[in-house]
Amino acid sequence: MNTTNFDGQWTRRVIERLGYGTAQGSSTRGGLRGLAVMARRLEEGFDSGFTIDGPRGPRYVAKPGPVMLARRSGRPVLLFHIGLEHAWTLKKSWDLMQIPKPYTRAVLIFAPELEVPKNTDHEGLEKKHQEMQKTLERLRDVAESWFSLTEEERERARKEWNN
User: Fold this and answer.
1) Are 115 and 53 spatial neighbours (Cβ–Cβ below 8 Å)?
2) CB–CB of 52/136 below 8 Å?
3) CA–CA separation, 130 vs 64, rounded Å?
4) Reduced to 3 states, what is the DSSP secondary structure of residue 24?
5) What is the pLDDT of residues 3-18, one digit of tens each?
6) pTM of the model
7) How far is the C-alpha of 26 from the C-alpha of 46, rounded, in Å?
């Protein structure tokens, strides 16, 4: 899903130029329409993705869209975070976007799939949304500290996430 605001259109063009499709919408404008497009694309056999904290943040606070789409589609939510050893941080951007420095190492940490049954009610959706948020926070903590961990701490993290 891609935001409909001006800067999102640049992102949309890049994504589409790379051969991927987009659905226009965000947590503040056209989100339900965008979720409907994404659900249709999932039914057609495509995958979908979100920038989890939306177009305006707050940074690292997940929006409910992925959980809502998972309930509608019956597909699980796959949560991950990428940690970089060396990066430039865009300090004037709301999300402090990072650009990897050349030849840096990265780590990609995945959580187990988050399932949302199709019959989940409003309260259940909220619980799944909270579960998603907590999992994303744990993923971020591990991924962003990965290169400062000892090998023993890394092994502990591997065991935790590979169960």
Assistant:
1) no
2) yes
3) 9
4) strand
5) 777 667 778 888 889 8
6) 0.84
7) 20
